[in-house]
Amino acid sequence: MISTIRTALAALGTKGNPLEKLGPGKLYEAWTLATVLQNLRTHEGAKITATSSTAMRLRASHGPLDSKFTHFVCSTPFAQFTIWTDIEVRTLSSLHRGASPKVPVAGDKHELDIVAVAAAAGTTGYPAPEDLFWGMECKHTAFTKAFHRSMLGIRRELSYATGSPQPTPFRAYPRAAVQSIPSSALTAFSTDPAVTRYAPAGAEWDVDYEHLTMP
What we know:
There is one protein chain. The protein is α+β, with helices and mostly antiparallel strands. Helices cover 26% and strands 31% of the residues. The protein has one domain: Restriction Endonuclease. It has a seven-stranded mixed β-sheet with strand order 1-3-4-5-7-10-11, sandwiched between helices. It has a two-stranded antiparallel sheet with strand order 2-6. The protein has a two-stranded antiparallel ribbon with strand order 8-9. Strand 10, helix 5 (199-203) and strand 11 (208-211) form a beta-alpha-beta unit. The protein is globular and about 45 Å long.
């Protein structure tokens, strides 16, 4: 698995050893990242390059977009976006209150393990819901109802249900349409096959669940 991750990321232009000192949870995050990037190339025809100042650096804790950490510039025939790991995204509730993104209070931001954001959002700060193309959570643990509730809560803080299909920036992968505004995709990846039990309930609110094993 480690060899596959290194090979996949190196093919996109990364340098150094991105997997040094990573625990099982972070390794799964890196594995999911590599899988997502490969699938974007296969299913969306994405051209992807890695961007970092020197060697590859993946975040060890959540925070804002920060160009000193490695991210991936993606271009498809339909959209341009960047992919980052361990990013905090601003919430709809904070926007409604007019809260300052520079002085957030508890609940003004939610963490996502991997995000795809509009290229126009820049490379610093906390993305707003309208900047988010795709949010991903990675669970290398038993998938419980608590995680399902968490995903539903994140969905509510990212967009409103519309009841009618809205196009996403993607042609097919991860999905072409949602019934939400802003029209972001949201996916939970887990090594636990039980994650798929929540797929029917999640589908009603544009939350996708995917069983992704590690080799």
